[in-house]
Write a structure and sequence with these properties.
Blueprint lengths: L15 E6 L5 H15 L5 E6 L11 E5 L7 H19 L3 E4 L11 E5 L11 H6 L1 H15 L7 E4 L2 H10 L7 E4 L26 E5 L9 H7 L5 E5 L7 H10 L4 E4 L5 H10 L2 E3 L9 H8 L3 E5 L2 H7 L5 E4 L2 H13 L17 E3 L2 H9 L1
Parallel strand pairs: 1-2, 1-4, 2-3, 4-5, 5-6, 6-7, 7-14, 8-9, 8-11, 9-10, 11-12, 12-13
C-alpha cells in the first residue's frame, strides 16, 4: 500500500484522511477506534486509510482501507519507530489531506491538517509510593507518557479530548492555544442484541433479597477496586468485579483485600457485550476509579437506566451530574451510606449535585463532525 495509495479507492479524487491507531486493542480506546471506523464508513466526501493493530476486525471497501501494523505494539521501541520514523515516511509518499492520530501521540507527518485525539489519563496521574510497589511499570510508563504527549504537540491544528475537563488539562499541558481545543464525546456502546429495559430505578423494587452492584473495569492500580469492595462491605449487598484476581500483583492484592469482606464475585475478564449485560442485570453500577479521561461504563450505565454511585471527580461530574439516577459521594462513609440506603429500598441522603465547570473548547457530536471540521 506504499504505491499510488489514492488509486486503490473507488473514488481516488476524494480527499484522503489517514487515521493512525496502532495502539488501541481493548477497552475504551478500542471503542473509540470502532466509532471512528463506523463514522468513516458512512461519511461522504473523503477516503479513509486506518493504520491499526488488527485489520481483520473490519471489512474494507468503498471509501475505507485498513493497514495492519501488528509489530508496533510488540515493544515501546517499535512503537516510537512507527510514530516518529515510519509514519512520517508514509505521509510523504501518500500526501494525505488530513492525519488524525488516535494514539495520543503526534507523529511529525506531512499533511495539510493534523490533529491528535487524546484518551490516556496517565499524564494527569500523580502516583503514590503504594502505586509504585503494586505496578512499577505502569508508574514509569506514566512519566514517559508525559514526554510523549508534548513531543511535536505544537504541530497539531487541533487537540481533541473526550470531556471538557480533560481537553482543558491536555490543551494546557501541550501549551496549545484555546482555539485549537476540541471535545468529541464518545457514544456509548449499546448493543442491539441486549434488551435494554430503560430507566428502571433501584428503588422500584425495595423488597429485593439483596442489592447487586457491579464495577466494570480492568485491573490497573489506579482503578481503585478497593473502594468498590469497601462500599459494598455491608449486609444485603453483593458485588461483581470484572477481573479474575490473578492477572497481576495488583489483581492478587484485590482478591486478598476482598477476603471475607462481604459478598464479592470475581467474574473474570468479559467481552464488551457481556460487560453491558452484566451492568443491565445489576441494581447499581459503581465507578470509583481515581484516574480517567471519560469513563465509558458510566455513560453506558446511564443508557441502560441503571442507578450509579459515584465519587465526585471531574469525569463523573461532567458525565453524570444531570442524570437523575446518579448519587455522588465525597467520602467513603458517604458512599457507604448511599449504598446502605439503596439496599434498604430507601432514597439515599441527598447531596447538592456538583456542577461541571464551564469550558472554552468547541464541542462536537461524534467523530463524523470531527472529520468535517478537519476537512474544512
Amino acid at each position: 500500500m506504499e504505491g499510488p495509495i489514492r488509486r486503490g479507492f473507488d473514488r481516488p479524487d476524494l480527499p484522503l484522511i489517514v487515521v493512525s491507531s496502532v495502539a488501541p486493542f481493548e477497552g475504551g480506546p478500542l471503542t473509540i477506534l470502532e466509532q471512528a471506523v463506523g463514522d468513516a464508513r458512512g461519511f461522504e466526501g473523503a477516503n479513509f486509510l486506518f493504520l491499526v493493530h488488527d485489520a481483520g476486525r473490519w471489512d474494507p471497501g468503498g471509501n475505507l482501507r485498513f493497514l495492519a501494523v501488528p509489530w508496533a505494539r510488540r515493544s515501546y521501541a517499535r512503537r516510537i519507530f512507527a510514530e516518529y520514523v515510519w509514519f512520517p515516511t508514509l505521509s510523504r509518499r501518500w500526501t494525505p489531506d488530513v492525519w488524525l492520530s488516535l494514539n495520543d501521540t503526534t507523529p511529525p507527518v506531512s499533511a495539510r491538517t493534523q490533529a491528535v485525539y487524546c484518551h490516556n489519563p496517565l499524564p494527569y496521574w500523580r502516583p503514590t509510593a503504594r502505586d509504585f510497589r503494586m505496578d512499577p511499570r505502569q508508574v514509569l510508563v506514566s512519566f514517559a507518557y508525559g514526554l510523549v504527549y508534548r513531543t511535536f504537540a505544537r504541530r497539531n491544528d487541533y487537540i481533541v479530548g473526550q470531556l471538557p475537563w480533560y481537553t482543558r488539562f491536555i490543551g494546557e499541558y501541550m501549551h496549545a492555544p484555546r482555539d485549537r481545543w476540541l471535545v468529541v464525546v464518545p457514544r456509548s456502546g449499546r448493543n442491539p442484541e441486549i434488551s435494554h429495559t430503560g430507566g428502571r430505578s433501584v428503588l422500584d423494587n425495595p423488597r429485593r433479597a439483596r442489592l447487586e452492584c457491579v464495577y466494570v473495569s480492568l485491573p490497573r492500580v489506579f482503578k481503585n477496586f478497593e473502594e468498590a469492595i469497601d462500599l459494598c462491605d455491608q449486609p444485603g449487598v453483593g458485588l461483581t468485579l470484572t477481573i479474575s484476581g490473578d492477572e497481576s500483583r495488583y489483581a492478587r492484592h484485590i482478591r486478598t483485600h476482598a477476603g471475607s469482606r462481604g459478598d464479592v464475585r470475581f467474574a473474570g475478564r468479559l467481552s464488551h457485550r457481556d460487560c453491558l449485560a452484566t451492568m443491565e442485570e445489576a441494581d447499581v453500577v459503581l465507578y470509583p476509579s481515581r484516574l480517567e479521561t471519560f469513563g465509558l461504563p458510566i455513560q453506558e450505565a446511564m443508557d441502560l437506566g441503571r442507578t450509579l454511585v459515584l465519587p465526585i471527580r471531574p469525569w463523573t461530574v461532567e458525565i453524570a451530574a444531570g442524570y437523575e439516577g446518579a448519587y455522588f459521594y465525597r467520602s467513603l462513609e458517604e458512599g457507604r451510606a448511599i449504598v446502605r440506603a439503596l439496599a434498604r429500598g430507601d432514597r439515599p441522603p441527598f447531596l447538592d449535585r456538583p456542577v461541571p465547570e464551564a469550558s472554552d473548547a468547541l464541542r462536537l457530536e461524534g467523530v463524523s463532525e470531527l472529520y468535517r471540521l478537519l476537512l474544512s
